[in-house]
Amino acid sequence: xxxxxxxxxxxxxxxxxxxxxxxxxxxxxxxxxxxxxxxxxxxxxxxxxxxxxxxxxxxxxxxxxxxxxxxxxxxxxxxxxxxxxxxxxxxxxxxxxxxxxxxxxxxxxxxxxxxxxxxxxxxxxxxxxxxxxxxxxxxxxxxxxxxxxxxxxxxxxxxxxxxxxxxxxxxxxxxxxxxxxxxxxxxxxxxxxxxxxxxxxxxxxxxxxxxxxxxxxxxxxxxxxxxxxxxxxxxxxxxxxxxxxxxxxxxxxxxxxxxxxxxxxxxxxxxxxxxxxxxxxxxxxxxxxxxxxxxxxxxxxxxxxxxxxxxxxxxxxxxxxxxxxxxxxxxxxxxxxxxxxxxxxxxxxxxxxxxxxxxxxxxxxxxxxxxxxxxxxxxxxxxxxxxxxxxxxxxxxxxxxxxxxxxxxxxxxxxxxxxxxxxxxxxxxxxxxxxxxxxxxxxxxxxxxx
Length: 450
What we know:
Structural class: alpha+beta
Mean pLDDT: 95
Helix content: 10-25%
Strand content: 35-45%
Low-confidence stretches: none
Shape: globular
């Protein structure tokens, strides 16, 4: 739901249910079909379609044996202290209306938005491997945005992030903890201040990246690049490939020795958390990068078998009508030992601090990128200085991560959810999370978004 200008701007309530069936036909491959008719007749027709699709595929050589897994059994549910679906519509709207009203007052604030969402997903899974389990996930969150305009200039400021706020695998308690009304006046004030802020100076400098922006950097330049189906060119025609090759595992220096990246489907609150993935593989924590060196990839059972690796348990489907493909779980930068954000900045004689993503661009090999943020601040003599508007930074993935010079400590680590990770054909959206503290990078190209 969304409110703006003191009014309800939109309420969307949807539900969907059905059954997806995937089969493997020896000598051909996989076939998949889905149906909303959960009857014996409906399921038999869907099964027949899936078999026909598999048999219509060109003949292929025998596939490598899948990594063995123990049959998944039982029930798993995410934590949910306050059920958002037990609250009245008025209760949920009251919080948003209050937050949005606190951003108004100055005529240069041309639009304020407060929004929230709640999603519940219930899955029942069974396979010929002997798996039979159920899962229930509750996702909840929201955020606010203020749009300012004057004298031909427009600026945006958001909290807690620039992409629908913060969403977690949790109940309404997560939205309450964000305390949107308390942050609303600051968000509006910063949007107004950015109207007259200096443009970000162009050149190479030390860059300190806030945790929310760094989460998206991890998503685009590490998470997608380490999906094994991309590496094996299975997604090249649609979502793109990767600059990483299958033989790089164990040897490729992805970044500086401070770079440690985990994929953790057991992380509390993570949108990429579950009991079992959509092939029945139990949730697990895997180190993808340690000491800056690539150690593993994100995989499903089929892609793992192709390179002789154990399954990474990263097969996920966007609902019953899509077959599982390799997707991120919770891909995170492990905390360092550089202390707080203030301590990161204290060691910088001259540089730029950037936070809250505004735009991104990266090539289909996840190699060359440019990111823009809502706000920047000049760093002088170890302290934050004047505001900078429309800041950007650019680089190439291995050079950027090799310039990683300091990572803040565990108390500064935060988990950020992302709802619109697109991939696959037909297209699928995955919900994933990335945990990270702020971090510092040396000799990065920065500039201004035009």
